[in-house]
Amino acid sequence: NDQEATLATVSFTAPDRSAQGSVKFGAAGSQTAEQALSAYITDTLKARAPDARVIAQRKNLDGSAEADVEFTSAEMGGRVRGLVRVFIQPGGFYFAALFSARDDQFDPPTAKTFVEGLSIGK
């Protein structure tokens, strides 16, 4: 299927393993940003980190939805905090950006800059 071939996930981890970012494109169908965010958390984040939990969730003025999350990351060696933001794309796709860092190194402005910066190219 040509649509499935265009779906992708890209992840990267800081050399010291203190922070990680990922971007995922997926099929959204007729879902809203909030529904796509819930599906991303359940199907992607909790598949990787079953203990993931949402701390706060909100809808943004640009129509995207985002959530503050916490989970355990084997790759980063313990508990991490993160910010995930989901945008709905034309054609029934979603774009999810996740920035996460160890609890003691999580910086909300850095996380916000990461996920908002990706929205410029949406």
Mean of the pLDDT scores?
Answer: 87
Widest sheet, order of strands: 1-2-6-5-4-3
CATH homologous superfamily identity = Mog1/PsbP, alpha/beta/alpha sandwich
CATH class: Alpha Beta
Question: What is the CATH architecture assignment?
Answer: 3-Layer(aba) Sandwich
Fill in the CATH topology. Protein Transport Mog1p, Chain A
Structural class by sheet pairing and helices: alpha+beta
**Amount of helix:** 25-40%
Backbone shape:
globular
Q: For the terminal residues, how far apart are their CA atoms?
A: 23 Å
Q: What string gives the helices and strands in order?
A: HEEHEEEEH
Q: Report on the biggest sheet.
A: 6 strands, antiparallel
pLDDT < 50 stretches: 1-5
- Please, how many domains? 1
Number of strands: 6
**Relative strand content:** 35-45%
Task: Give the number of helices.
Answer: 3
Q: What does it look like?
A:
With 122 residues, this protein is an alpha+beta fold. The chain is built from three helices and six strands, in the order αββαββββα. It has a single domain (8-120), classed as 3-Layer(aba) Sandwich (Protein Transport Mog1p, Chain A), CATH 3.40.1000.10. Strands 1-2-6-5-4-3 form a six-stranded antiparallel β-sheet, sandwiched between helices. Residues 1-5 have low confidence and may be disordered.
Short overview:
The chain has three helices and six strands, in the order αββαββββα. With 122 residues, the chain is α+β, with helices and mostly antiparallel strands. Residues 1-5 have low confidence and may be disordered.
